[in-house]
Amino acid sequence: MRAVAEQSREQGTQLPLPARTTRRNFLRLAAAGVAAxxxxxxxxxxxxPEVVKREIGLRRWPSPLNGFRIAVLSDFHYDxxxxxxxxxxxxxxxxxxRPDLIVLTGDFVSLPPLHxxxxxxAIAAEPCAQLLQQMKAPQGLxxxxxxxxxxxxxxxxxxxxxAHGIRLLxxxxxxxxxxxxxxxxxxxxxxxxxxxxxxxxxRPVPANEATILLAHEPDYADYAARFPVDLQLSGHSHGxxxxxxxxxxxxxxxxxxxxxxxxYRIRQLQLYTNRGLGTVGVAVRFNCAPEIxxxxxxxxxxx
Length: 303
Fold this sequence. Notes:
The structure is a single chain. The protein starts with a helix and ends with a strand. The chain is of the alpha/beta class. It has a 6-stranded mixed beta sheet with strand order 1-12-2-3-4-5. It has a 6-stranded mixed beta sheet with strand order 6-7-8-9-11-10. The radius of gyration is 24 Å and the shape is globular. It has one domain (48-299): Metallo-dependent phosphatases (Purple Acid Phosphatase, chain A, domain 2, 4-Layer Sandwich). 29% of the residues lie in helices and 22% in strands. Helix 5 packs parallel to helix 7 (154-163). The protein contains 9 helices and 12 strands. The chain has helices spanning 2-10, 19-44, 84-97, 118-122, 125-132, 147-152, 154-163, 198-202, 221-224; strands spanning 50-58, 68-73, 101-104, 141-143, 166-168, 172-178, 181-187, 211-214, 231-234, 262-266, 269-273, 291-299.
């Protein structure tokens, strides 16, 4: 046998491995691959936000504000073990991007498994807001609440945001004035809570002025498209959180099934859905990194 092996080496040929050895190596490689995917989905993907940059043209956008930049963040689900890391990373990245305005589209905290723990869960809004206030923009930080915020303690979450300089829009609109021109930033209450009132929110907004709507749930865009709203910014979906190539997301929450991530147009309304920073359920992301969106706005050329 030794002579055969030596002869094979001399002739440049390789003896076939025993089937058991080949199978063992394959199983080792498969196990290593699964372990690598596990490490990636737990330790890498959830902790390193991706900056997604988009140019958006709006028909009613004031031309003097061409180039105005908005940073969009969402779904923080603050906890001191997991989501604190992508939130900290996002704060540094946003400050490097130097946006003109920052919007936060809800879910600062997470619903606990037991109803009696809801008030306690809302306390996470305080350290979350403390981190987020470190982001700076000339036109400030603005927010709406998400379903997790609303069903824990919306008053506490809202107060925590206010105490750290983050303006909450609760069925309200505010004029953003820059260099003598303005647009309107509007925000509705969480849609799933059935307290969103878009008619009341838009009441002070002149019909001919550009309006950006913050609404936690993206599928609300089908309703918002009936109103004079130019752009809706949302979160809620987490992008599916786990995305296997060529397959649909395993899970998407209600009102995030139709427009789960990225850019959409619904009649005259444009929508952008942010994938969020945190996680719910299991602290895992796969092929669906946390997202910071940087939108650059300009007046669309109408032909």
